[in-house]
Amino acid sequence: MEYIAYLHKDKKSDYGVSFPDFPGCITAGSTLEEARSMAVEALAFHVAGMREDREPIPKPATLDDLRGDPAMKGAVAFLTELREPERTVRINITARQSQIAEIDRRARAKGLTRSSYIVQSALKEKAASR
After folding, report:
1. Which residues are 4's β-sheet partners?
2. How far is the C-alpha of 118 from the C-alpha of 78, rounded, in Å?
């Protein structure tokens, strides 16, 4: 199932993403690709939380439904696939203490956990090698 997302970009800002069907579900990325990737993740986690709270999941709105939405002003609409979150698996890695400290510093700078930073960095590397 796909939902409409709004992409906003102001000068000197990251790409912001919001979902008209899910007020309060927002994310951002420093690049367009990162924003799109983060949108998929944000939507999945938001819907998982709604399901956990036994809230109804809305049917996707159409562009016609959103024609008068003021949040759409200055935005580009795109479709985001709702993917069910996968089960999280804990792993152990081995690294030098100084490497872990550097990973932690970079993660904090991006507002991420160590795990999120490592996973996102590895996936960016994979995408770049394509």
Report:
1. 79
2. 28
Interior angle at CA 10, CA 115 and CA 40, nearest 5: 40
The alpha carbon torsion through 8, 9, 15, 16 (nearest 10 deg) reads -30
* Cα 93 to Cα 91: distance, rounded to the nearest angstrom: 7
List, for residues 41-53, the tens digit of each pLDDT value. Answer: 999 999 989 998 9
Contact call for residues 40 and 80 (beta carbons, < 8 A): yes
Residues 82 and 92 placed together within one structural domain of the fold = no
User: Is the pTM above the cut of 0.85?
Assistant: no
Separation CA 24–CA 18 (nearest Å): 8
SS3 label, residue 90? coil
User: Given the structure tokens 């939380």, which residue do they identify?
Assistant: 49
Contact 72, 62 (CB under 8 A): no
Same domain, 34 and 9: yes
Residue 124 pLDDT class (50, 70, 90 cuts): confident
Number of structural domains found in the chain: 2
